[in-house]
Specification:
The protein has 190 residues and is mostly beta strands. Helices cover 12% and strands 48% of the residues.
Length: 190
């Protein structure tokens, strides 16, 4: 297995962790949204993204404490752009798509930080393992569209992504950066 194969699952996990705000009252605009991840294999950054994700969002900028976000990512939609690597990602050692077809994020608290910035805390579940995370999210509005952006570092081994021989962090780094851009309609004025 190449280093690229090892990195792909890590990046995917990162992307999943990054997925935070999206649709319920509000609607996700998939064509304007993305979830990307970056992992390092033998020190070399490798990038990937998820092609399929969804969200249920009830977000009120005036009352963030009463807002709720639930985000799902189809783990089988991870791609790093190389056929060999993409074929490895669904396997049990990485995402185990057959047993865990989705990763989820469910918010527990949302706090306004001012200037269109929010702290979104909640439970990220990947491959059956759950970790409490806090995600810094920036919101910007243009016309009827609100764009939520942010980045979340995750530890792939906390989710057993790259298990067994791939647990060696000298080959594939433990930290994966997940970057997201989520376009939403129906969000009130910031």
């Amino acid at each position: 297995m190449t280093a690229l194969h090892r990195l792909s699952p890590l990046l995917l996990a990162g992307a999943l962790a990054a997925a935070v705000p999206a649709q319920a009252q509000q609607q996700l605009v998939p064509a304007q949204s993305s979830i990307e991840f970056t992992a390092k294999q033998m020190g070399v950054p490798m990038q990937g993204h998820f092609r399929k994700f969804d969200a249920q969002v009830a977000f009120d900028p005036a009352k963030p404490a009463t807002s709720r976000i639930r985000f799902t990512v189809d783990t089988g939609s991870a791609t790093m752009g190389a056929r060999e690597t993409d074929a490895e990602l669904p396997k049990p050692v990485w995402f185990n798509v057959a047993q865990f077809p989705q990763a989820t994020f469910e918010s527990s608290t949302i706090k306004a930080l001012g200037g269109g910035k929010f702290d979104v805390a909640g439970k990220l579940t990947i491959k059956g393992a759950s970790v409490q995370v806090s995600v810094p999210v920036s919101l910007a509005q243009s016309g009827a569209t609100t764009t939520a952006t942010g980045m979340l570092p995750i530890k792939r081994l906390a989710f057993k992504i790259g298990d067994g021989e791939w647990a060696d962090t000298s080959m594939v780094a433990d930290e994966v950066q997940v970057k997201f851009k989520l376009a939403l309609t129906g969000v009130g004025k910031l």
